[in-house]
Amino acid sequence: MKGKSTVACALSQGLHMRGRLTYILDGDNVRHGLNRDLSFEAEDRAENIRRIAEVAKLFADAGIICIASLISPYRKDRDACRALFPEGDFIEVYMDVPLHVCENRDPKGLYKLARAGKIKGFTGVDDPYEPPLKCEIVLQQKGTDSVTPGEMAETMISYLEEKGYLQA
Ligand SMILES: Nc1ncnc2c1ncn2[C@@H]1O[C@H](COP(=O)(O)OS(=O)(=O)O)[C@@H](OP(=O)(O)O)[C@H]1O
Ligand SMILES: Nc1ncnc2c1ncn2[C@@H]1O[C@H](COP(=O)(O)OP(=O)(O)O)[C@@H](O)[C@H]1O
């Protein structure tokens, strides 16, 4: 789902410019430390997501906006996260990026390995991504034009402003 980390950084920068503290919990990074014991089997993905949500809650308690950039491909795991937070504190963002675009943004070459059958259970290739039925924000490509990470960040910041999340 290429673009999560890049857009998370752009959002974080935009929020810093508005005087807000943020912390990014990136699936790929957290899996090198806190979640290094977890695989990509469905139950381990659920545990990865659950732990990240619990850490996000700790940040939220400290008044820090936590940006969790992870695939979280299954609806039930995302719904379980939502249930951990008070109403309105969990904002689900769906990055609706076509698979062929993701495959063209493949700096680590993982899609290629998955297509060659060298990685099994790879999201989008031989493991499903379940798009949300209902979420707070959808980030989409506009027609054939690529939307920049900065534009995507602005969409999220506008949402937060409109809903009053950024009031002092
Ligand atoms: N089987 C499989 N499926 C999907 N992704 C895989 C897999 N194996 C390794 N990777 C790499 O792990 C990154 C995704 O980790 P996440 O913690 O975000 O995944 S999940 O939320 O637990 O599904 C993902 O990182 P991003 O490239 O940042 O998306 C991949 O680089
Ligand atoms: N909106 C965008 N337009 C063009 N390239 C992008 C965009 N978002 C991300 N990229 C590029 O795609 C690649 C993967 O992005 P990344 O943020 O690491 O994805 P993810 O965290 O989902 O794996 C990077 O090389 C990044 O520069």
From TrEMBL:
Residues 3-139 form the APS kinase domain. GO terms for biological process: hydrogen sulfide biosynthetic process; sulfate assimilation. It is an enzyme of class 2 (transferase). Its EC number is 2.7.1.25. CDD domains: APSK (cd02027). GO terms for molecular function: adenylylsulfate kinase activity; ATP binding. Pfam families: APS_kinase. Pathway: Sulfur metabolism; hydrogen sulfide biosynthesis; sulfite from sulfate: step 2/3. It catalyses: adenosine 5'-phosphosulfate + ATP = 3'-phosphoadenylyl sulfate + ADP + H(+). Keywords: ATP-binding, Kinase, Nucleotide-binding, Transferase. Belongs to the APS kinase family. Catalyzes the synthesis of activated sulfate. This is Adenylyl-sulfate kinase.
